[in-house]
Amino acid sequence: MPAKKTYYITTPIYYPSNKLHIGNSYTTVAADAMARFKRLTGYDVWFLTGTDEHGQKIQRSAEAAGKSPQVFVDEIVAWIKDLWSALDISYDDFIRTTEKRHRETVQKIFVKLYEQGDIYEGRYEGWYCTPCEAFWTARQAEGGNCPDCGRPVELVAEEGYFFRMSKYADRLLQHLENHPEFIQPPSRKNEMINNFLRPGLEDLCVSRTTFNWGIPVPFARGHVIYVWLDALSNYITALGYQRDETLFKKFWPADVHLMGKDIVRFHAIYWPIFLMALGLPLPRQIFGHGWLTLKEGKMSKSRGNVVDPMVLVERYGSDSVRYFLLREIPFGADGVFSNEAMLQRFNTDLANDLGNLLSRTLTMLERYYGGVIPSPAAETEASDRELMELALETPGRMEALMDKLQFSGALEALWTLVKRSNKYIDENTPWALAREEGQRQRLGTVLYNLCESLRFISVLVSPYMPRTPRRIWSQLGIVDLPELQTWESLSRFGLFRPGLKASRTEDLFPRLNIEEELNSLMGEEEYLRKQEEVPVAVAPRRQPDGAAPEAAGGPERARAPQEGRETRETKEQISLDDFARLDIRVGEIMSVEPVPGADKLLKMMVNLGTEERQIIAGLAKHYTPAELTGKKALFLANLKPAKLRGLLSEGMILAATDVSGKVVITTVDDDAAPGSRIS
Ligand code: MSP
Q1: Could you tell me the distance, in angstroms and rounded to a whole number, from the CA of residue 27 to the centre of ligand 1?
Q2: Can you give the residue range of the structural domain that contains 42?
Q3: pLDDT > 50? residue 562
Q4: Which atom of ligand 1 is nearest to the CA of 51?
Q5: Any domain includes 514
Q6: 19 lies in the same domain as 100
Q7: I need a labelling partner for 187 at 20 to 30 A (CA). Which of 1, 342, 578, 612 fits?
């Protein structure tokens, strides 16, 4: 048997400086869908993801959290792995840059580049953006802000080692010109050429001395290797480059490095040049997808407006979330994430189109054939032929789109078949056939064709929604027939075996009540923002002149302590009537327990005089359950209930937050009876 074709795909390695949000999950879900699609179509796939754990940004985040960098990253990496497992990410390897296999190889790479004269000693004076871990010239960082993220840059002056970028610039330019597919989409290639290559590449500082959280330069004490040289090398260190090279020989060069558009520059300029210097072939493609934003602008943890993918997966299941991410926005373009758009998609595409197709088919099979798949007639009608032709064409159409990483287009092509199948039911009206004398055979053919079309759909949807196929197969009675679940089995329409027994056991995607869902998702977001990120929560969403907060000083400012003070002063005056709308009462905390999977939340039962209520509070970082139990404090009793992590919260504890973020609850004297109102 000839060896299978190989396919190597990577995601960026994520900074474990914070939990990941829906924007980061987007890249990984896309890479996973691609890896699964290639496996389905017969490739030997290697899918790599991981975490980028060194550098000044991580060191500072760890310091702020009062933890050692290693302990700090270990905790977040564990959370990231849980997220990937919740999203069914089928990676073959997860590389952490703090692992020995990576550290040692990066040191070898550095030494090799130094010994061959590509790295030389010097002194760096210029600007640095810590959130992006990027060096900028004064011209690039004009105005004191990073041209990429807009945050303030810092002046850096330190001894360093430099890489001779300029030596390879012409070769890179030539490569880009000879390989138009190398940077995708093409607009990003032009940006690289015009903004970075043509103006001339400066040599790159590849070591730092002002902090120590990095891979040491083996021959120079006090120097750590620049985090992007460290991080980019993961794509080869994980394959065993310079160690056991079996995987490296098999899978390098990568077929595609996937990433967001913000980090294309590092992959399209630094990475190929490092590889050229190492004498290695270049990856075949670098794909920079668009940015996922919210209606109010860029998603950022410091603004407190991130969407937590874990919450969505717990509520709607990973297949639905994956479907939305891949279907909604053409890969490459920017797109707005909104709960409303997501819920609409669930109802139209998943509940109405796919869910209904299966349930209608199964109901009719049950009603007219006791669930046993009938035999089709030999002769076909026009609508049968149209359906068959479309089913047989769909795999090829999808494959062509997937080869261009057009996930949304591929799903659209698949949904054309889903919709055509629903239309086929309407055209053939099986319920009328069932009533007519002599139409039994025709009815059997129609239902058979629907089962077969559903088989095509279920196999084709598997890369995007890996859990759904089994749910379809087990209801259609083919879950134990792997030969009907392969890509190859889609080259013939008519493999479904008559006589198999189908049974309707569940609705694939029950319709959602959009208004109710929106209320609880909003409730949860607002609630979390209020309770978990108090200094941000009080910041006005818009500045008085209507500009977004970023324009008024960048997202970093929202985090600065004085920002909390400033925004408190800007709160508008209210009347006594406004105040009277608040039902603030004394409550006695009867019991408290942690909320599983939510490290900031506590669940408490509170006696509010008239009744006992469950209240979820973002206090776990500030109090232990024992410290709160038995205390009397003030509660807002008429706050609209919200669901957090699936738990109903019916009120809010009032707490005071100082400028450093320290939170203290508003306890009252023990004499105050539970239920006493504040006026
Ligand atoms: N550690 C570097 C990558 C090193 S790769 C050798 C890094 N990490 S990151 O955690 O900041 O970002 C990882 C990826 O998430 C990037 O591809 C980035 O573009 C992507 N995204 C972060 N926020 C995003 C959105 N809001 N929308 C889409 N992608 C986003 O950069």
Answers
A1: 8
A2: 6-104+229-312
A3: no
A4: 1
A5: no
A6: yes
A7: 342
Cα(152)–Cα(136) distance, rounded to whole angstroms? 11
| Rounded Cα gap, residues 81 and 322, in angstroms | 17
CATH of the domain at 673: 2.40.50.140
Are residue 271 and residue 347 in the same domain, yes or no? no
User: Distance from the CA of 334 to the center of ligand 1, in angstroms?
Assistant: 14
Closest atom, ligand 1, to C-alpha of 20? 10
**Ligand 1 atom 18: the closest Cα is on which residue?**
260
First to last CA, the chain: 83
Ligand 1 pocket at CB < 6 A: 12-15, 23-24, 26-27, 52, 231-232, 234, 259-260, 262-263, 291-292, 299
Cα 312 to ligand 1 centroid, rounded to whole Å: 20
Distance 263 CA to ligand 1 centre (A): 7
Ligand 1: centre distance to CA 13 (Å): 8
Residue 12 Cα to ligand 1 middle (Å)? 7
What integer pLDDT is reported at residue 158 of this predicted model? 87
Q: Give the mean pLDDT of 591-596.
A: 92
46 CA from centroid of ligand 1 (Å)? 21
The pLDDT of 581-587, averaged and rounded, is 94
If asked whether residues 133 and 11 sit together in one domain, one would say no
If one residue of 17, 22, 27, 48 were mutated to test the ligand 1 pocket, choosing by the most ligand atoms within 8 A of its CB, it would be: 27
Helix residue ranges, H only, 41-118: 56-64, 69-86, 100-115
**pTM score:** 0.79
Q: How far apart are CA 231 and CA 283, in angstroms?
A: 16
The tokens 């850096």 sit on which residue?
156
* Three-state secondary structure call for residue 187: helix
| Domain count for the chain | 4
> Are 291 and 142 within one domain?
no
Q: Which among 322, 282, 251, 231 has a CA at the least distance from the CA of 92? A: 251
Q: How many whole angstroms from 237 Cα to the centroid of ligand 1?
A: 20
The domain boundary residue, chosen from 253, 277, 312: 312
Ligand 1: which atom is nearest the Cα of residue 17? 10
Reference 35, options 419, 402, 562; nearest CA is 402
Query: Per-residue pLDDT tens for 273-330?
Result: 999 999 999 999 999 999 998 887 777 655 566 788 999 999 999 999 999 999 999 9
Query: Counting atoms of ligand 1 from 1, which one is nearest the CA of 298?
Result: 26
Closest residue CA from atom 19 of ligand 1 = 260
Least confident span in 162-166, 221-225, 228-232, 540-544: 540-544
Residue of minimum CA distance from atom 26 in ligand 1:
23
The three-class DSSP label of residue 16 is coil
Residue 549 has pLDDT above 60, yes or no: no
Give per-residue pLDDT as tens, 221-259.
Answer: 999 999 999 999 999 999 999 999 999 999 999 999 999
Is the pLDDT score of 188 beyond 80? yes
Do 447 and 342 share a domain, yes or no?
Answer: yes
Q: Say whether both 80 and 192 belong to one domain.
A: no
Task: Please tell me the distance from the alpha carbon of residue 457 to that of residue 361, in angstroms, as a whole number.
Answer: 13
**Does residue 280 share a domain with residue 165?**
no
Indicate if 351 and 476 belong to the same structural domain.
yes
Distance between CA atoms of residues 38 and 33, nearest Å: 9
Question: In which band, very low, low, confident or very high, does the pLDDT at 529 lie, cut at 50, 70 and 90?
Answer: low
Q: What is the pLDDT of residues 357-389, one digit of tens each?
A: 999 999 999 999 999 999 999 999 999 999 999
Among 222, 247, 282, the domain boundary falls at 222
Instruction: Find the CATH number of the domain harbouring 416.
Output: 1.10.730.10
